[in-house]
Amino acid sequence: MHVPREVTDPEGIRWTCVEAYAGISGDAGDAAKVDGERYRVVCTPSGASKSVELQLSGGWEDSLTDDDLLREIANARDDPS
């Protein structure tokens, strides 16, 4: 089971990140897999910003530092696509 992870950026926005489609039972849970060991992760802000979708390596919940996760969020916010 994937537990949401929360981080707070320097602007004071609290982001809640969870693997896309987490909580769906059966094979549908694999829908978050992008390529190889990379997964779609959706991060939702507590404030006025919009959610971002990231592609992170498996195990990101434990292996990615808060600073690295915030950097990925910032990069996704800056990317106009």
Put simply, the count of helices is: 2
Q: Strand-and-helix sequence, N→C?
A: EEEEEHH
Strand content: 25-35%
* Unreliable spans: none
Largest sheet: 5 strands, antiparallel
Give the termini separation. Answer: 30 Å
* Total number of strands: 5
Radius of gyration: 12 Å
Structural class: alpha+beta
Can you walk through the features of this model?
By secondary structure, the protein is α+β, with helices and mostly antiparallel strands. It has one domain (about 5-80). It contains two helices and five strands. The protein has helices at about 60-65, 65-80, and strands spanning about 5-10, 15-20, 35, 40-45, 50-55. Strands 1, 2, 3, 4 and 5 form a five-stranded antiparallel sheet that branches. The radius of gyration is 12 Å and the shape is globular. The N and C termini lie far apart (about 30 Å).
Q: What are the SSEs and their pairings?
A:
Layout lengths: L4 E4 L5 E6 L13 E3 L2 E8 L6 E6 L2 H4 L2 H13 L3
Antiparallel strand pairs: 1-2, 2-4, 3-4, 4-5
Structure in a nutshell:
Helices cover 21% and strands 33% of the residues. It is an alpha+beta fold.
Notable characteristics:
single chain, 81 residues, alpha+beta, five-stranded antiparallel beta sheet, 2 helices, globular
